[in-house]
Amino acid sequence: MSYKYNKFYLLILYKMNKKIYRPLLLPFSILYGIIVLVIQCFYKWGFFKVHRAKIPILKVGNLSVGGTGKTPHVEFLVKHFSRAYQIVVLSRGYNRKTKGIQWVEAQSKAEDVGDEPLQMKQKFPNVPVIVSAKRAAALPFIYQKYPQTQLIILDDAMQHWALASTLDIMLTTYDQPFFEDYVLPMGRLREFRQGYTRANSIIVTKCPSNMDQQTQSRYIQKIRPENYQKVYFSSYEYGDLYSLRASLPPIQDLSSCVVIVLTAIANTKYLETYFNNRSLSSSWLRFRDHHLFSKKDIEQLKMHYKLKQESTSDTVLIITTEKDATKLIAYENLIKKYELPIYVLPIKISFVGGIESSFLADLEQKLFNGTSI
């Protein structure tokens, strides 16, 4: 059984366990952590080949399984670096049904390339996006098709040791930081906590936008960064709703609406806070992270929508995430037939204290001036 599926079953165990049973899972967590550590050491010691690119490689990843906000942070980096450099985004394309190397086009299907790479391509149509489980295997294709490439950004690649990086950015969440978590299945970590020392920058994500200096200092103290590491704090900002169907009218005010929230993401807590803070009447249809919607799911959504319509005189709207919208678009005709008013809630990140420029300048200097560790 592959490493991928072992991790999947350990995650199932984690979701089933309660705190009272966690000590029983400790031996499995230690065993899993040791296996991952041995694999890493085999790369470090040269038993497994490590590929080195001709150009800078920026890895963005985490120690935990999902839900840290990688995609908005990668988009933030793509938006910045694509202004001045020729860049390529390289991703695994999680949960896609295809194999091998695939170039992502704006018209691609999420089931063929993965939802997050497709979202990236649709947002940045001029930036090449490629998916490959073996990231190093994609390098010759990048060199051949885009020989002017100056930077490759790897999405979700902190445990991808087969391709060496120039810099590593590690994400961890405000609510469940890595220093309070455990290795699967006792917790959600993919490896032992000590893995954080490989990162050059650590970003604590999904923080309150008004996070005070005292709280920041407390987190930094618990992270215990090495001398070469910098710690940053980021929060989410939600933008204006836009419609999945062009014929729908814009929504200016949600206060008099009943909202159905449709999600297939790892962690909905931040999104729940968004609706709760606005005192919106909402019900939820939740699917597992990266779930590929089916016709049956659209039928379920239609039934849920009709029941809501019958129970209220207010306007009923369906709101989803940008990531989920990439998969819903495959059922555009069915959604139009059922007249489902689906709106998309965009998201972006901002750095607590407004230090985006400082963070980006530091990255740029290390990537292109050869000063990385």
Largest sheet: 9 strands, mixed
**Mean pLDDT level:** 91
Low-confidence parts: 1-5
Order of helices and strands: HHEHEEHHEHEEEHEEEHEHEHHEEH
Description:
The chain is of the alpha/beta class. It has two domains: 200 residues, 3-Layer(aba) Sandwich (Rossmann fold), CATH 3.40.50.300; 104 residues, 3-Layer(aba) Sandwich (Rossmann fold). It is built from twelve helices and 14 strands. The strands form two sheets. Strands 3-4-2-5-1-6-7-8-14 form a nine-stranded mixed sheet, with helices on one face. The chain has a five-stranded mixed sheet with strand order 9-13-12-10-11. Strand 7, helix 7 and strand 8 form a beta-alpha-beta unit. Helix 5 packs across helix 10. The chain is globular and about 65 Å long. The N terminus is likely disordered.
Short synopsis of the structure:
By secondary structure, this protein is an alpha/beta fold. It has twelve helices and 14 strands.
